[in-house]
Amino acid sequence: MNIKHNLLDIEGTTAPIAFVHQVLFPFAKKHIVRFLNSYQFPEDRLREIKLEFEKDLALNEEGFFSRFSKSESKIIPGSLSFSNEIIPFYFEYLIEKDRKFGPLKEIQGKIWKEGYESGEIKSIVYEDVPGFLENAIKEGIKNHVYSSGSVEAQILIYQYSELGDLRNYFTSYFDTAVGGKREKESYKAIADKLNSSSNQIRFFTDIVEEAEAASSVGMDVVILNRPGNLPQKPHTYPVWDHF
Prior knowledge:
Blueprint: E1 5-8, H1 17-36, H2 43-59, H3 87-96, H4 102-118, H5 129-138, E2 142-146, H6 151-159, E3 172-174, H7 184-193, E4 201-205, H8 208-215, E5 220-224, E6 239-240
Parallel strand pairs: 1-2, 1-4, 2-3, 4-5, 5-6
Helix pairs in contact: 1-3, 1-4, 4-6, 7-8
C-alpha cells in the first residue's frame, strides 16, 4: 500500500484522554462565563446556538434546566427561552455533556489560547509522537490532524507541548467543519481536500466507529490502545500500543 498521508486524531491517539478531560475541559469551564461576558458572536453563530439550545429545550434532558438556576433571572423551566445572557450557562452545560458542537469548540479554543499563552496550560503529547512524525516526513509521508476540537485548539496543543513546538511536523488540520468523525462523508471530504485517493491515507484513532467510517471510503486504519483509552467493541483493525 502506497501511503502518502497520515491523518491523526488527538485525544487518545497523540495525547492522553486525561489531559483533555482533566486539564482542558475544566479550564474552559472555569473561564467560559467570564470570557463570554465580553464576547460578541457573529449572527450566523447565534442562530446555530439558538437552534441547538431549542433542541435541548424540547428534549428536556435531566439536568438541563437546573444549569440555568445560576443566572440572575432565576429562570424556571416554564419561562426558559434563548437569550445572549443564557449562552454562558448553556455552554457550561455543553462542556459537561462533552458535546461536539462547533461554536462551543471555537470558544474553548480561544479560552485555551489564553491559558497556553499565559503559561497556565502546557499540553501533554505522548513521547513517541515526534519521532513517528519525523520518520513519516523522511519517508515522504505528510502528517495531518483530524479532531473534534477546533483547528485553533489543535494547533495550540502541538505549539505549546511539553515536548516543544511540534507544528512543523504537520501539513494541515481538520475539525468537524468537514463533518462528524463517525460519518464517511467527512473522510471523503478530507481526501478531496488533500487531493489524494482515500487508499493513500492512513487514519489513526482510538475509536472503532471512526475507524469504520474512514475504512468505508478506502482509508487504511490503525486503532491506538493508549493507557486510559476506553474499551472498544470487537473489530478486525490493527491495534498499536504506541507509534
